[in-house]
Write a structure and sequence with these properties.
Order of helices and strands: HHHHH
Strand content: under 5%
Helix content: over 70%
Number of domains: 1
Shape: globular
CATH topology: Serine Threonine Protein Phosphatase 5, Tetratricopeptide repeat
Number of helices: 5
Distance between the termini: 48 Å
Largest sheet: none
CATH superfamily: Tetratricopeptide repeat domain
Oligomer: single chain
Structural class: mainly alpha
Radius of gyration: 14 Å
């Protein structure tokens, strides 16, 4: 089982599928003590894939578990990106 630091490194190096699989395993454990950070990292992995909805869902889970989570900033950043994104510009 990888540590969250190792999983973070996987995400950084673009190995997001492997990171998500490992995070899924950790998050299935009822007694896992770092669920908030794991959800935040899984949000980062999904964001890196461009899967905005899954990223937002995971950031929300992290924020619910830990009010001081860095997921607040990440969630706000994704919302800013999505609010700025103009789909009509790509349909010309």
């Amino acid at each position: 089982m990888e540590s969250l630091t190792d999983i973070s490194t996987l995400i950084l190096h673009g190995e997001v599928e492997a990171a998500i699989r490992q995070l899924d395993v950790l998050l299935q454990r009822e007694d896992y003590p770092e669920k908030a950070r794991a959800y935040y990292l899984r949000g980062n992995a999904y964001r890196k894939q461009g899967n905005w909805q899954q990223a937002l869902n995971n950031y929300r889970e992290a924020m619910d578990l830990d009010p001081d989570s860095p997921a607040h900033s990440a969630h706000r950043m994704v919302m800013d990106i999505l609010n700025f994104y103009n789909k009509d510009m790509f349909n010309q």
